[in-house]
């Protein structure tokens, strides 16, 4: 490239000679246009950014500069020499520096940084009215330090079913999309146990009424009496009268699921009644104030009370009468024999399962934060938690048995078998890098099965 002069200085043929002038020629060799191209693959937010790939047969690729322009997913214009990190649509402009023979060349390529998909993990979707539970949504996979959370709408407080919707909020929300954004909240009506006292009395011509007390004083109810299937407004005469309680608030129910239930018998006797007493004790090492004693005539009914006792590391399983083998649950009726009866609370030792979920990465094994850990017994899902920042988790108050532990994060799933006998168990799990394990799905009603280490099949 440059300006040049060409001069003719002689001829090989002696029969000719050069003219006196016109023997020189000036000319210029200009720089060529050259050719070049660039490509750049897109990626998903949070992944390692790709690099532009330049190509040029005329300029080479050693002296190329880049400029990135476009719009982020949040609508902000972007213009920088640095590779963008936020989700959005962009253009890379590659400038190939001029060479001795070619002008500088500029070329462009479009690429996209896709939003990262988060899958909401819903907790607390099965509640009982008044238990104070809250719906929680966790978002595994948020890039470290990003300001992103889930805001839930549609929840109620009364016993009913509610369609919930989760929406992403926060300064970095434009880098994400949300999957599994809807769920159903079920709030069940609260079961209430009614105890009856003063229900065996001697006739004296006046109206008789038993004392009926719910174990939740917030529950509204009415008490009525029936004899031989017919309502009795004012029991006075000698005889037996069914005591019926009707719950008037749909947020509550009887232990049998109904709003109306017989809770005892009012007995009016001619002679002074002979009463037998039922008492309740904690049993073994349990502690707490005992329920009030109940009294009834022979063949009269009492209602087993709620359990007020507590025993660390044990689960209350029901009541047993002295000398009996039947296990009664709170709210069940018991027919009194012609003697006093002592009920003893029955207990089952319970244990915990805890552990750490780790995941394999290029840098080594690290604690898997926000992994979803579920505990199953056959087709019955017993609980679900998410791991902490260090990958730890815990399930408490489990009776002896064989359980399935299923750990899920992103597309990876691992299973572990946990057998509890006489002590708490540690159960750790390792999520593979970029792999998916198998999962056995069990339909309701299937016999209990236990699987583990499916990823090794």
Q: Summarize this, please?
A:
Helices cover 0% and strands 50% of the residues.
Could you explain the architecture of this structure?
Helices cover 0% and strands 50% of the residues. It folds into four domains: 1-114, no CATH class; 117-188; 274-349, Immunoglobulin-like; 351-456, Immunoglobulin-like. By secondary structure, it is mostly beta strands. The protein has no helices and 41 strands. The protein starts with a strand and ends in a 26-residue tail after the last strand. Strand 35 and strand 36 form a beta hairpin. 25% of the residues are buried. The model is unreliable at 438-447 (pLDDT under 50). The chain has a five-stranded mixed sheet, with no helix packed on it. The chain has a five-stranded mixed sheet with strand order 20-26-24-22-23, with no helix packed on it.
Count the beta strands. Answer: 41
The shape is rod-shaped
Helical residue percent band? under 10%
What value does the average pLDDT take?
90
Hey, roughly how much beta strand do the residues contain? Answer: over 45%
How many whole angstroms does the radius of gyration measure?
41 Å
Notable characteristics:
457 residues; 5-stranded mixed sheet; 50% strand
What is the topology?
Layout: E1 2-7, E2 24-29, E3 37-39, E4 43-44, E5 53-55, E6 64-72, E7 77-80, E8 88-96, E9 105-114, E10 116-119, E11 121-123, E12 126-128, E13 136-138, E14 149-153, E15 160-169, E16 176-179, E17 182-188, E18 190-192, E19 194-197, E20 200-202, E21 211-214, E22 221-227, E23 230-232, E24 239-247, E25 252-254, E26 260-269, E27 276-281, E28 294-296, E29 301-303, E30 314-321, E31 333-335, E32 341-349, E33 351-361, E34 364-367, E35 372-377, E36 380-386, E37 392-398, E38 401-409, E39 412-420, E40 425-426, E41 429-431
